[in-house]
Specification:
Layout lengths: L11 E4 L3 H10 L7 E5 L37 H7 L3 H7 L6 H14 L3 E3 L1 E9 L4 E8 L16 E6 L1 E4 L3 E3 L6 H5 L4 E4 L7 H6 L3 E4 L3 H13 L7 E4 L20 H8 L3 H10 L1 H4 L4 H14 L8 E4 L2 E8 L5 E7 L4 E7 L1 E4 L3 E3 L38 E4 L4 H4 L9 H13 L30 H4 L1
Parallel strand pairs: 1-2, 1-7, 2-3, 7-18, 9-16, 10-11, 10-16, 11-12
Antiparallel strand pairs: 4-5, 5-6, 8-17, 13-14, 14-15
Helix pairs in contact: 1-13, 7-11
Length: 468
């Protein structure tokens, strides 16, 4: 690291350019005088390309784009994207509130290529605090189109050092593979893959005699449905396993969805850490359930295949955990499974496994190693995150490190939700600028969460007269 910058520090440097930092970049683009840049190591933007299954739709309305719920007149809103593509009238007549996932991917890619602040092929390698510059010093490497850091002549394609007064970490999540299946997933021979790679391996899967899908969420349901629709009747050869006690619908009632509002986020953040840790697992149906429409489509397809009087060769079993896996002498995959409620153990032989087992936050410990002594942590060793999305840092650090989708333990189930992206970006920009650059509503839910909350209408149970 150098002792000072050659040029004035940026006001904001974003690490990663996934949907959440892309939202921040889009809203930052509308702030006069705010100097920002967003570095992403990928060569180009792609949003879950392995799960862009034909016909699959977003689980949130199109208004949950990068900016609309904060600034609907922004040039980066989804409706303006349609306007630039001359597709507003087709969209109007389609009457779609939940758009195709491929369409959303196209929209995000359009924003990523048109925004002047996004820089793809830039890998951030290290971050440290430069006290002399009063800014963060950020080392990065420019990458080639295939992610290579070295050219044919063995020389680096190019590195760099930049300074920024504030950072925004939006490095996203990585596919999670349960420990019992990691060795097989790393072996190219057995067909064991995460659902993130589903479309790239779909042809191989369809050629397998029997396929097991593991995971009860939306991805698992969509993979099962796509396979089911593509398999011959009477020889489907499909099994769907899940640890959850049921293949349950995602919470989608209008009042229930208010747990994805800024009001609930503020309430959750104000709870004791031990309470938050107890609460999160019980809310699995808010983010691990399946769309009721998808569950209905699966049932409809199974029912149609049973019209001749035969049950389709499909097994759906919840309450199951995969505890072991191995390859048999014949090249098949043997899964060891346990049923929690029955306290029973058994085996399942299959030819392919698709793991719809979700995602985990990408570790940033290496990236922030130089800042580690300054990061304030909770009793479980996790970074504390304040209400404005900032890591709580020691007073020696004057700048802020904002985080996106790395704060479920402090901000609750809405942390990975697209519907809160624009609001969270506005919170960050307002904290960054020290003023209400983007006015935000004081109230966003009809529900009042908690007694003595920052309550616009008063404590529940008191009349308007009593509140005066």
């Amino acid at each position: 690291m150098t002792s000072g910058p050659r040029t004035p520090p940026l006001d904001l440097l974003g690490v990663g350019a996934g949907p959440f930092n892309l939202s921040l970049a889009a809203l930052a683009d509308g702030v006069p005088g705010l100097r920002s840049a967003f570095h992403e190591q990928r060569a180009a933007f792609h949003w879950h390309p392995g799960l862009l299954i034909e016909g699959a739709t977003l689980q949130v309305p199109f208004l949950a784009d990068l900016v609309s719920l904060v600034e609907p007149t922004s040039p980066w809103c989804y409706l303006n994207y349609l306007k630039t593509r001359r597709r507003l009238f087709p969209f109007y007549f389609a009457e779609r509130f939940h758009i195709h996932r491929t369409e959303f991917d196209n929209y995000l890619r359009w924003v990523s290529t048109e925004l002047p602040s996004t820089h793809f092929g830039h890998r951030v390698d290290a971050i440290a605090w430069d006290a002399g510059a009063g800014a963060f010093a950020v080392d990065f490497t420019r990458l080639g189109p295939d992610g290579e850091a070295l050219g044919p002549d063995g020389k680096a394609l190019g590195g760099g050092l930049t300074h920024a007064r504030n950072l925004a970490l939006g490095v996203g999540t990585a596919p999670h593979i349960p420990e019992p299946l990691r060795d097989l997933a790393a072996d190219p021979e057995p067909l064991v893959l995460h659902s993130a790679d589903y479309l790239t391996q779909r042809d191989r899967l369809l050629a397998a005699r029997h396929i097991t899908v593991v995971g009860s969420g939306q991805s698992g349901a969509e993979v099962l449905l796509d396979l089911l629709r593509s398999r011959p009747e009477g020889a489907e050869g499909l099994t769907w396993l899940a640890r959850t006690p049921a293949f349950a619908p995602m919470e989608y009632s209008k009042i229930g969805l208010e747990q994805f509002t800024p009001d609930y986020t503020r309430y959750f953040h104000g709870l004791p850490q031990a309470t938050r840790d107890r609460l999160l697992p019980s809310q699995w149906q808010l983010y691990k359930g399946v769309s009721g429409d998808t569950l209905g489509d699966i049932h409809d397809e199974l029912y149609r295949r049973s019209l001749g009087g035969q049950w389709p060769d499909v097994t759906l079993t919840p309450g199951i955990e995969v505890t072991g896996a191995s390859v048999t002498g014949r090249g098949r995959i043997e899964l060891t499974v346990e049923h929690g409620q029955q306290e029973a153990r058994g085996g399942l032989t299959t030819d392919a496994v698709v793991l719809a087992t979700g995602y985990r936050e990408r570790p940033v410990d290496g990236l922030l190693a130089a800042l580690d002594p300054y990061i304030v942590r909770d009793d479980a060793g996790r970074p504390q995150v304040d209400e404005a999305q900032r890591l709580v840092l020691a007073t020696e650090i004057d700048g802020s490190v904002f985080v996106q989708n790395a704060e479920r333990h402090t901000h609750g189930v809405g942390a990975p939700d697209l519907g809160l992206a624009a609001w969270r970006s506005a919170v960050i920009i307002n904290a960054l600028t020290g003023k209400e650059t983007y006015p935000l509503p004081e109230r966003t839910a009809f529900t009042t969460f908690g007694l003595g909350a920052d309550d616009r209408s008063g404590v529940p149970g008191r009349t308007a007269e009593e509140r005066r």
